Amino acid sequence: MKESYFIDKLLDEGEQEPKKLDLIDDKLSKDDIRALIYEMINKMSEEEMHRLLKDLEEGQIGDRRQCERKDFLRVIDYKVGDNYYRDFIQNISETGLFIKPSKTFSVGQTVSMTFMSPDEQSPFKINGEIVRVHTGGIGIKFKIESQVQRMVLKSYIDMIQG
After folding, report:
1. Percent of the chain scored above 90 by pLDDT?
2. Which of 51, 58, 64, 111 is the most exposed place for a label (fewest CB within 10 A)?
3. Does residue 54 form part of some domain?
4. Which domain holds residue 38?
5. For position 118, what pLDDT does the model report?
6. Which helix (H) or strand (E) holds 90?
7. Residue 88: which CATH number?
8. For the whole prediction, is pTM greater than 0.70?
9. 85 and 129, same structural domain?
């Protein structure tokens, strides 16, 4: 469906604004949604567009975090594919972390991370998936594979927040 046709379809006779749609309406196709977003953006001021772009880049729209993040600047060793890296964690929560990497990665890549235990005596490993990529870094969601991993990670986070 062409954008202009769809927008015209939404306009009531004599009205200057599209009807409000139920955003939960799952009957809208991807193209229809794209057309609505395009129309909304075209009505924004340049300042509003810049703010929207910044929010999108920083992941502020549709923030789905379940746990509070804690600023945490610490080195982490991790592996993506067959390559090993060492970078800094920027923040961490019980569900994931944010790293400022030295290399570019893609959403969906698997990451194997090695953390030092709070007593700095024994390392523990946790896998994750890159779920967010932007200029400031990458967001990684932990893939907890056992109750033991969950408890060790929770103790680690509690130590940081304590």
Report:
1. 23
2. 64
3. no
4. 3-43
5. 60
6. strand 83-92
7. 2.40.10.220
8. no
9. yes
